[in-house]
Design goal:
heterodimer; A: alpha/beta; Rossmann fold; four-stranded mixed beta sheet; B: alpha/beta; 2 domains; four-stranded parallel beta sheet; 8 strands
């Protein structure tokens, strides 16, 4: 565990020194925060919608097995096929087998965090299948040889200047900082990809149990093309991504999109119910096969745990945009697929005790994430729970453990507390410069690295109070 | 029917005010006694246990919570705390960490029901409209996370500050954003905390305020330590100190 902590700290210090990164983060978080705020004001009673959305997520997850069965039945009834993957390896194997049995050479992908979670792209490439991302952000990240740093905006960490340079170098287009020009350049490259890909892979924002419908939210229309042009569509979804009915979808969809980008509705919205139908005249287009891969990968274990609430998440990214820590260091510093407050809980939750547990420390528990969460997930409470698990696993450094134990001892024995304070006053008098410490040893050096520390006052409040009461009883 | 104003209150000083900023405690006394309250300061109070809770040392936090419960259970008078985060600890976290304790769960809920952060007590319970003090210069307000989002209190401190005669309130950009204190976070994640602090200090300087006010001694320590390190003359005051005037 110590090694992962060291790695985390070195990623953090790199991020803090990265001037373009911090400028990109600053611009993007500020913009998305204000867009979200504007977006929510277009709802008559956003708080009531959030409460209802939370209740819906809770009740759906309570009977997830039933909803999953209904979903599977509905998908199959409309001609689709459903695969259950217990873990990442099984999910990769399912997709690789589909690719092999259908002689797939080229895959076009629309955004899917689950594909990142299961490490799908490297596995496909290893099997000599070409993978091309069609979401502009993912495309940029792929060109740069990086990973997404934000759950809804993969290239969040890049400035438009950096992206212009990247496209200039990789695609040979003239240097530009105009997003529309960059978009057009990427689009013209991708057009041919849609038409030549053998398989389209997409994520899923929501699956609807009653109809077997897959709902996909995009602003670029890339999911529409990725899922309809190739002859095969493989949709990857976490098992928790279900809503029971279309009416339920109409509750969570508006709050998802508003929380993510502030839009009332995304530019494109795909509802996919089964593959291309051949009966009754048939559909003019669409894939001949639709495969839905339902990925568990730790989720059913989380469902029965004290972290179950994290599965309410509808992946809007609002907690990342508002998090003061994320804003300073960005997603890559977390070193996990899911970053920000949600990632700090989801990573150890999905992967089990110990994995990513250092992320729980990267929070002041300021509560901004809980405040903006469309389904009001109490992320700070879960971060404390994860810290407590880490303490139980002996991960808290000895100096802190010892320090807190002594503090507890003092705090539960008032005479000891007073004695310790007396010692504090003596130390302050002896070592502080005009009652402030400029440099302290041991763990406290972390404090004085950045700021001065006020020392103990010459007289504690209780003494001043006693003096005052003696003067005017 | 109006609820009677409580005649006597208990002051939970907090360990930071007791030891590092005792003047805050005296200012709180002035404010409450000025409103006609008899203030007692129960003997044997130490720390609410928040540092242990935040660190995930829940057993230690429970031990400190039980200590505080016993100190504040001797009287049923309302408890006033000059700290949003300590008040949030008692009001929200005590019932949470003691919920499985057959004896203390009820006591924790009972205490939570009569515990108030200072500004909430002044405005919400005592219905204070004006503090009648004078101040000077430009003042800005930093909203501490646990008062704002933990206890949901945005307005009371500002309402009270607005009644200071002679002072000018100036807005603070990002006033509701965390200053990066977070207890042990400031030590364990010193560099991230430092970056957050820098952003906050930049906003404070840009506000052109001469005094920055907050309702939590933790934030005050952090802001003051940062300003002092950077040689700034901007004063950092607790709400209570600001409200008794200069």
């Amino acid at each position: 565990m110590k090694g992962t902590r060291v790695a985390f700290h070195s990623r953090v210090s790199l991020a803090l020194k990265d001037v373009p990164l911090r400028s990109a983060l600053d611009r993007a978080t500020t913009r998305l925060q204000s867009m979200r705020e504007i977006g929510l004001t277009s709802l008559a009673d956003p708080d009531a919608v959030r409460d209802r959305a939370r209740r819906l997520r809770a009740s759906t997850l309570q009977r997830l097995d039933t909803h999953l069965e209904a979903f599977e039945t509905a998908v199959v009834a409309r001609g689709g096929q459903v695969h259950f993957a217990r873990d990442a390896a099984e999910a990769r194997r399912i997709v690789l087998e589909l690719a092999a049995s259908h002689n797939v050479r080229r895959v076009v992908k629309s955004k899917s965090m689950v594909s990142e979670e299961i490490g799908l792209n490297p596995a496909l490439e290893e099997a000599s299948v070409e993978v091309i991302e069609s979401d502009l952000g993912e495309y940029i990240v792929q060109l740069a040889g990086e990973t997404p740093s934000h759950i809804i905006a993969p290239a969040f960490h890049k400035t438009k200047e950096q992206i212009g340079l990247l496209l200039h170098e990789k695609l040979g287009i003239p240097l530009t900082v105009d997003p529309a020009t960059m978009m057009a350049a990427a689009r013209s490259r991708l057009r041919d990809v849609y038409l030549t890909a053998d398989m389209g892979i997409s994520g899923v924002n929501f699956g609807v149990s009653e109809t077997g419908t897959l709902c996909i939210v995009t602003n670029e229309g890339n999911a529409s093309l990725s899922t309809s042009a190739p002859r095969l569509h493989v949709a990857l979804m976490g098992i928790e991504r279900l809503v029971p009915t279309m009416a339920d979808l109409s509750l969570v969809l508006p709050i998802l999109i508003r929380s993510a980008t502030g839009q009332k509705l995304s530019v494109y919205l795909d509802f996919i119910t089964g593959p291309r139908r051949l009966v009754n005249g048939g559909d003019p287009d669409g894939p001949s096969e639709l495969h839905v891969v339902l990925v568990d990968n730790g989720r059913s274990r989380v469902l029965g745990s004290e972290l179950a609430e994290i599965l309410y998440c509808i992946r809007c990214g609002a907690c990342l945009n508002v998090c003061p820590v994320y804003r300073e260091v960005g997603g890559h510093a977390y070193g996990s697929v899911y970053s920000g407050p949600i990632g700090a809980v989801l990573t150890p939750a999905l992967h089990g005790a110990g994995v990513g547990s250092e992320l729980a420390d990267a929070s002041t528990l300021c509560g901004a994430c809980k405040d903006v969460c469309p389904v009001r997930i109490d992320i700070p409470r879960m971060l404390v729970r994860l810290r407590s698990n880490a303490v139980e696993h002996g991960e808290l450094p000895l100096s802190f453990r010892l320090g807190l134990r002594l503090f507890r001892l003092a705090a539960t024995w008032p005479w000891l507390f007073r004695a310790a304070a007396r010692l504090g006053r003596i130390v302050t008098r002896a070592l502080a410069d005009q009652n402030y410490f400029r440099r302290l040893p041991g763990p406290l050096s972390g404090w004085t690295a950045q700021r001065d520390l006020r020392g103990f006052a010459p007289k504690p409040f209780s003494t001043l109070l006693a003096e005052r009461r003696r003067k005017r009883p | 029917m109006t609820e009677a104003r409580p005649g006597s209150v208990q002051l939970f000083t907090t360990c930071l005010v007791e030891n590092l900023r005792p003047q805050v405690g005296l200012a709180v006394l002035d404010l409450l006694e000025g409103q006609g309250c008899a203030v007692s300061c129960p003997m044997g109070q130490t720390c609410c246990g928040q540092p242990a809770y935040n660190a995930g040392c829940l057993d230690d936090a429970r031990a400190m919570a039980r200590r505080t419960l016993s100190v504040l259970a001797r009287s049923k008078d309302p408890v006033v705390i000059p700290s949003g985060s300590c008040a949030d600890m008692i009001i929200h976290r005590y019932p949470e960490i003691l919920k499985n304790d057959p004896i203390d769960a009820g006591a924790a809920r009972e205490l939570a029901g009569r515990t108030y952060e200072l500004s909430q007590f002044l405005v919400g319970v005592l219905k204070v409209k004006e503090v009648g003090a004078r101040s000077a210069g430009r003042i800005t307000y930093h909203a501490s996370c646990h008062l704002l989002r933990g206890l949901g209190e945005a307005d009371s401190p500002l309402q009270l500050l607005a009644t200071l005669s002679g002072a000018e309130m100036v807005p603070l950009k990002g006033a509701e954003e965390c200053c990066g204190f977070g207890g042990l976070f400031a030590i364990k994640m010193s560099d991230i905390s430092g970056a957050m602090l820098q952003r906050k200090l930049d906003h404070i300087r840009a506000s052109d305020a001469q005094t920055v006010v907050a309702c939590d001694t933790g934030c005050l320590l952090h802001l003051e330590g940062g300003l002092r390190r950077q040689g700034s003359a901007i004063r950092v005051l607790h709400l209570a100190e600001a409200l008794v005037g200069t």
